Amino acid sequence: MEHVVEFISKFLLCCMPCQNGKTFRAIKNIVAEIDEDDKLGRSIHIVLTMNTKLNNAQFAARLEEIESTYGKGSVCVFVSGNYNGKYTHVKKRNELQGICFNKPTCPRVVVMCSNKTRTKNVVEFINVINENENCIKRAFVYYDEIHEYIDNGTLRSEIEEIHNLDIVKGITGFTATPYKTWTTNWLTPFWKAINIIVLDNFSTTDYVGCEDVGFNCIDDYYIEPYVRPSPFCDELDRQTIGFIENVLTKHPQILNDNTRSFIPAHRRREGHNAVRDLIFRLNKRAVVVVLNGVNKTLEYNDDCYETRIRLDLSKGTEEVCETISKLVLQHNLQDRPFVITGLLCVGMGQTLTHINTGSFTSAIFGHLDLTNDAIYQLFGRVTGRMKHWGDKYVQTQVYCPTTIKHRCIVMEECAMNIMKEHNGDIITQAHYMAPIDARVEGKAIMENIRKEKNNKNMTPKVVDIDKDYKVFDTQKEAIDFGKTDLGCKFNMDKDKDKCIAPKTLLQKDGTNPTVEYILNRWWGIDIKTRARKCVTIDNKWCVWWRPSLIKND
């Protein structure tokens, strides 16, 4: 583990697994600071949510207690477009400054989306209140899903700028996937080692995570090796929808009555609509919610299956899960198969389950092209604090390739480790990776993250962590292991004393390969050849295989 140079910073990182309570923790901290206003001076709390209207509205909806406790105007929503909610609304930075320089109208909390314009507005606004006499004596800034925006080119410098202002007393980033938050450059100590927020009395007893879902691995759809298509073509839609149809065909019970399924499409809106149409083709009784940047609708067929009814979900001011739950109960749809689809509006930060309708019964994830952060965040929509929901909580059956299962498990393990083992510590990127760094799949995942981070222009290839290997001293040991443990028959090389690796694995100078080279190549594994053995440069024998192929034998 790297040595940590302690850097006194106002910046804190709150890392918790998906839907484990980050928003609750943020609001709890806000309320605690507001309670200190009489003693320490009036505070203002600026919250930047993920850059979607749904996430903005979701966070704002959870601030009702502050509005009711401290009076109308205590919560302000800063959005340039139309807003039909109950809180004070401003469209421009000058409007925000205007209400903040008058104590009776000054908000306690300001909520806005995370985009380059708004993060710049935050810097400008805080500089103004720092330089001019006004009622605000303390400022706190909160960045939700900070990993999504930290590499946008300016956010790091903006955070460093406001960090140096006297009026700023705290800056907090919230995320379940914090890897990108750190840098490895010792010339930037601000981001080299980061202080983890202190979490008091946290518990995971009612939390539903990876170990609580039922993974059903589907490995017969994608052909290895998987290469990510261009994100600008419809091939990703074809792959994702094809995987969904493959799963639904094999497991039609997913769309039985009294089911609730999360079946995200890909980025293009046409793909969301195609998933909706597929669901209705397979089951006319279905209720389908489509959430994307244009349409937020709930659709179902009438009792005669002759008329499609479409309800608009975008007009409500409450959380989308609350709106959906009310409509399902209001229209007596709770016994029908219920499906939510979309991607960008549902892939991160958004809560889709509700105690009135219950947890998801099924979910389908075939998105092999997504980064590790993105696939874990997408999987995180089926997690959350739900075990106390009584008969409304059931185990979610997750249908996905084995590699997605492993990636989600190790990403959650990293987040859980920070929350449990590094509460209040100052840690580096290495601490975050520590729980899985010794595991083969863990190394593969982190190498994928490093490539994503260091080469933004690359067309990423999905790292396959459905891999395992073992090294033996003799060829006989390798052959015996293949027969007894893998169910694979390896032939003994004819010349036991002068064993030479296959030509494709020989190094440039004609010598046998190293173990590292073999593992980097991962040559020759497919459905027919589930495992291979090869002599190494130091006369050891390396055996490598895919666990999913062995398990499914």
Structure class? alpha/beta
The CATH architecture designation of the largest domain is 3-Layer(aba) Sandwich
The tally of structural domains comes to 3
How would you sum up the global shape?
A: globular
Calculate Rg over CA atoms. 26 Å
The proportion of strand residues reads 15-25%
Number of helices: 18
Helix content class: 25-40%
Q: What is the first-to-last residue Cα distance?
A: 40 Å
Strand order of the largest sheet: 4-3-5-2-6-7-1-8-19
Count of distinct strands: 22
CATH topology of the largest domain: Rossmann fold
Low-pLDDT segments, ≥5 res: 1-6, 453-465
- Quote the average pLDDT: 85
The level-1 CATH class of the largest domain:
Alpha Beta
| Biggest sheet overview | 9 strands, mixed
Provide structural commentary.
The protein is of the alpha/beta class and 553 residues long. It has three domains: 11-196, P-loop containing nucleotide triphosphate hydrolases (Rossmann fold); 207-413, Rossmann fold (3-Layer(aba) Sandwich); 468-551, no CATH class. It is built from 18 helices and 22 strands. A nine-stranded mixed sheet has the order 4-3-5-2-6-7-1-8-19, with helices on both faces. The radius of gyration is 26 Å and the shape is globular. The chain starts with 10 loop residues before the first strand and ends with a helix.
